[in-house]
Amino acid sequence: MFDEFWKLYPRRVAKKAAQKVWLRMTKQEQEDCIEALPNHVAYWKLKQTEMDFICHPSTFLSQGRWEDELDMEVKKAKKPELPWYSSEDATIKKAQEIGVQAYAGEGWQQWRARISQRIKQLEEQL
User: CA–CA separation, 4 vs 67, rounded Å?
Assistant: First the structure.
C-alpha cells in the first residue's frame, strides 16, 4: 500500500523516511490516509500551493496530517478599491458624498481640485 501512497503524494522526497513511518502505522491508519489523500491533493491544487509548501511525505504521515480539516472554499480576490478620482463615475459619487456641485463650464480637473480641497477641509475638522 505504501507504493500507492507514494504514487499519489505530489512531493516525492525522502522516500525511505516516509516508508519507515508508514510501516509504524496501523492498517486502518494506512487505509484512512490513502482514502483522504485525493482530498489533500485537490486542496493543494485549489489553494495553488507551491511544491515547497507541501510538507514532506514523512511529515504528512508522522503528524497524521491526512486527518486535517480542509477548507475547500475558494476565496475570491478582492478588487482593490480605486481612488475617487480614477474615473468620472467615482468622481461624481465622491462629489455627491461630500456635497460639492460642479460649476457650469468647469472642467474635470478644476472640479476634482475643488473636491480635493473639500476632502482636506473635512479631514482637518476631524
Answer: 18
Residue 56 to residue 53: CA distance in whole angstroms: 9
- Kindly state whether residue 74 falls inside one of the protein's structural domains: no
Q: Is 35 in a helix, a strand, or coil?
A: helix
What global pTM score does this model have? 0.58
Please indicate, yes or no, whether residues 6 and 57 belong to a single structural domain of this protein. Answer: yes
pLDDT in tens, the chain (126 residues): 899 999 999 999 999 999 999 999 999 999 999 999 999 999 999 888 999 999 999 999 999 999 999 988 877 777 788 899 999 999 999 999 999 999 999 999 999 999 999 999 999 987
Show the cell assigned to 92: 461624481
**Dihedral sign, CA of 38, 72, 55, 68?**
negative
Quote the Cα angle for 101-87-85, to 5°. Answer: 65
- Do residues 8 and 60 lie in contact, with contact meaning Cβ atoms separated by under 8 Å? no
Domain containing 95 equals 88-125
